[in-house]
Structure formats: C-alpha cells, structure tokens
Amino acid sequence: MPEILQYEHVNIAYGSRHVVRDVSFSLKKGQILGIAGESGCGKTTLIRAAMGLLGAGGRTSSGKILFEGLDLTRLTPKERRSVNGDRLAMIFQNPAAYFCPVRKTGTQLYEAVRAHQKIPRGEFTKQAAALLEKTGFKDPEQILEKYPFELSGGMMQRIAVACAMLSRPQVLLADEPTSALDAAVQKQVLDLLLSVRNEYGTSVLIVSHNLGIIRAVADMAVVMKDGMVTESGPAASLLSHPSHEYTRELLAAEPRLRRSL
Ligand SMILES: Nc1ncnc2c1ncn2[C@@H]1O[C@H](COP(=O)(O)OP(=O)(O)O)[C@@H](O)[C@H]1O
Ligand SMILES: [Mg+2]
After folding, report:
1. Is residue 215 lining ligand 1, measured as CB closer than 6 Å?
2. Residue 40, ligand 1, Cβ within 6 A
3. I want to staple 238 with a disulfide (CB 3.0 to 4.6 A). Which of 49, 71, 233, 244 is the partner?
4. Does the pLDDT value for residue 166 go beyond 90?
5. How far apart are CA 187 and CA 171, in angstroms?
6. Distance (Å, rounded) from C-alpha 210 to C-alpha 45?
C-alpha cells in the first residue's frame, strides 16, 4: 500500500526548547497508525505540526511532513486552506470544549463545514444525518437540533467523527479521542474509527497515552519517549512482544486497561 503521510526526521521546538527530535514514521493508505507514549512526550505536538497549529512559539525546525506531494510544515496559507478540514481532518480529546454551549449543535457544525466547503444547509443536514445514522444515532436530525449540553461526551465525539468525515478526508488525525470518555463509550468511538477506515478507506493517525487504545484499533504502532521514537512496528506484535524496555514499562503500568479492552 502506498504511503499517504510521512514524517521524515521531524524536529519541533517551542521557543528554544526542542520537544520532538528526529521523528520518522509513515502512515499507509487505509491504515490505522497509533502513537503511544506518556503525557508530555510530544504526541499532540506531532499532530499540531501536521495541521499547522503549533501556535506562535512553535516551529518545525527541520524535517518534513509529506502529504500528497506537499510538505505540511511549509504550506502557503492558500494550500493550508485547501488541506485542513477537507483532505486532512482532525478530532480532539474533548469535543465539547470546541462547541459553544448556547447554540444548536447542527448550526455550529454547519458553520464549521461551510468554512471550507460550499454546501447549502438542507444538503448539509441530509449528509450529516446520513453519517450520524452510520455512527449509531437513531434520530440523527433531532441530534442536530440539540444543544451541546444535551449530549454526552461519547455522543459529541461520534458527532465530531461524523463531521470530520463529511468532506471524505484522506487522513483523520485523532488526538486522544477517547481519553475523556469512560471505558464502555471508548469502545463505541474506537469501533466507529474502525468502521470509518473500513467503509471509506480513510487513513487514521491516532495518538494516546493509553496502549490499550492503540492495541484495540491500530495496525501499526509507534512508541515515543521524551520527543523521540523508541520503537515502531506492527501493533499486535509490538504490543504483545515489545523489544524495548520502555514499551514493557508502559505495558506493565496499564493492567486494568489491558483487561477492559
Ligand atoms: N504551546 C506550547 N508552548 C511551549 N511548550 C509546549 C507547548 N505545547 C506543548 N509544550 C511542551 O511540549 C512537550 C510535548 O507536549 P505535547 O505534545 O502536548 O505532549 P503529549 O501530547 O504527548 O502529552 C511538553 O513538554 C509540553 O510541556
Ligand atoms: Mg497530548
């Protein structure tokens, strides 16, 4: 399978502090790649760099993130607009934080989609409802009429995935998408990511501090520590027979989650 997203010797700094060092890995078409590592190792930074969302103090000092012939670390604003939310979509740890509590969910989603896609409201509602139905909602049109506080965290995250899929992105970046959810609901969202990949062939880059999450969905895994890759390979074998001591330590630290997933 061809590669769709390639990190090549990526170094990222916030000010003078280097937090990601010489990171290389690649995501193939239709594959799910999971990055695991403890909090602070640089997972979110890697995703933000691809989205161009490092903020004023952050910069990719060297290396490339290649996506369909483009280097995502060096896009013009125009190229960025044609990539983000369209060919490259992202879901966050806590989707509720990105919604305004006093406006209807459907209205806010429509505005987000309209920012990069010309689509009439009626058509949006039709497409969004169809996707929401696929994500397990029995009354999708009513969901769009609800306010965010009327929905649970798991519902919000499934809505966020459906919304990200409206433009049929080639790559979905998921930053700790289930960390704010309890175990039963985590599984629903992970199943949804798997079905999105299976149905649309979307490639997924998922990062989590929780190895159980990576094991549950990923084909390939990358383990990071202190901004560097310590180990990578097929997820099933890497996480059942880790060759690196650090991966063994991470696995040993998570007995409860290993049983629950
Ligand atoms: N905007 C920022 N400015 C300065 N330092 C940051 C910023 N964002 C993250 N960091 C630092 O970069 C390191 C990696 O952070 P992050 O990518 O959020 O890790 P993870 O997602 O793995 O928990 C941490 O030491 C964090 O404190
Ligand atoms: Mg993070």
Report:
1. no
2. yes
3. 233
4. no
5. 21
6. 17
9-59 residue pLDDT tens: 999 999 999 999 999 999 999 999 999 999 999 999 999 999 999 999 999
Amino acid letter, 154: G
User: How many CA atoms lie less than 13 Å away from 216 in the CB half-sphere?
Assistant: 24
Q: What does pTM read for this prediction?
A: 0.93
**CATH T-level fold of 3-95+171-260:** Rossmann fold (3.40.50)
User: How many Å lie between the centroid of ligand 2 and the Cα of residue 175?
Assistant: 7
From 11, 45, 224, give the residue whose CB has the most ligand 1 atoms within 8 Å, as the site to mutate: 45
Mean pLDDT of 107-133: 89
The alpha carbon of 13 is separated from its chain's Cα centroid by a whole number of angstroms, namely 21
**DSSP 3-state assignment of 21?**
strand
**Ligand 1, atom nearest to 15 Cα:** 4
Class of residue 165 by CB neighbours under 10 A (exposed 0-12, middle 13-18, buried 19+): buried
Atom nearest to 45 CA in ligand 1: 17
Domain segments of the chain: what residues?
A: 3-95+171-260
Ligand 2 center from residue 213 Cα (angstroms): 14
